[in-house]
Amino acid sequence: MSIKHAAIVGAGVAGLTSALALAARGISSDIIEQAPQLGEVGAGLQLSPNATRVLDALGVLSELERHWLEPAAISLISGMDLRPLASVPAGDFARKRWGQPYGVLHRSTLQQALLRAVLNQPLCRLHLGHRVQGIGAEALAAITARKADLVVGADGAWSVARDAIAGSPTVSFSGNIAWRFTINQAVAPSFLSRTGVAAYLGPKAHLVSYPLKEIDGFNLVAIAAGTKSDESWAIDADAARRAMLLEQFSGWHRDIRTVLAGAEKPTFWPLYQASEGNWHNGRDTVLIGDAAHAMMPFSAQGAAMAIEDAYSLAMHMAKAPLPSALAAFSSERKARAARVKARGDFNRFAYHARGPFRIGRDIVLSLRPPERLAADLDWLYGHRMDG
């Protein structure tokens, strides 16, 4: 074991998972979070088998399974005429093919499950309501009263931990916006699948929908080109932003436009992505999750990559001296994140295709059986980490 104690900046999915993964290796941690309490954040979340495999190893999965829904399939549908284009089976198929389930749930369900596990873990201590001003071990020790061998920056796209790493990634606006909202089951239109994840595709935009068991309703995310207003993840969508949304989905099927026009309390999320850069300083500080590699949500892997990062980091910390462990972690995870990002870039092109490209996409998808589409995801959903 290269370290005995870590300070983790941020108590989101990345930070809490990191604390549990380190504790599983006998490494204690202090988790420092600026929020005074961990309340509900975001809305729906997809957890693919590569993520649930880690959560199972950390003893969290069984609690999630009591609250989530396992979609029967992930389907691609034309947003112009609601014509099915392709489908990847999930449900029991996912458990058999990739060895773990695929689930959809409210983000707060995951965060609360991780939080309870952390609070019940003697090796983990949580410090709420502390805004980090300096990332050095001494500055953090002023909060935790313990000096850390390792500082883990798990503080998201607007990470302050990056300031401690020369040549670290920078974030920039992607040019795309996500509008997020939910619909109650009682008033949801019939075209929304009650049993699966559906991605409705159209020119320069797409809409994702899936049921959320916890709210007896549906999570919807509409993604299209747009302009940012400030460096914020979630902003209440005012009249101007609602108009922007409807403009991006002009020409879509009337039932979809009706849903978008009637959305209650939608939030407007400018989407940011991270550049290449250093994830660690070679000595005592490392980045994970969005702090290291914020990416577009076109492969629904944001939370999964943070969860994988956390497990991989703990695995390397238990194997090698700290400098070597940091280098090995960075090398492994950068390659993995780059491949996931490339898949997301491909999906972005395919989902938002126009003109002849859209026609060609539809033909290709119609010719590929579900099993072939599933096989294309083996490298992603079947991913395993040794140790």
Automatic annotation (TrEMBL):
Cofactor: FAD
InterPro entries, alphabetized: FAD-bd, FAD-dep_Monooxygenase_BioMet, FAD/NAD-bd_sf
Signal among keywords: yes
Keyword terms: FAD, Flavoprotein, Monooxygenase, Oxidoreductase, Signal
Pfam families registered for this protein in UniProt: FAD_binding_3
Coiled coil: none
GO MF, one annotated term: salicylate 1-monooxygenase activity
EC number: 1.14.13.1
Keyword Transferase part of the UniProt annotation: no
The protein's name in its UniProt record: Salicylate hydroxylase
Species for this entry: Rhizobium rosettiformans
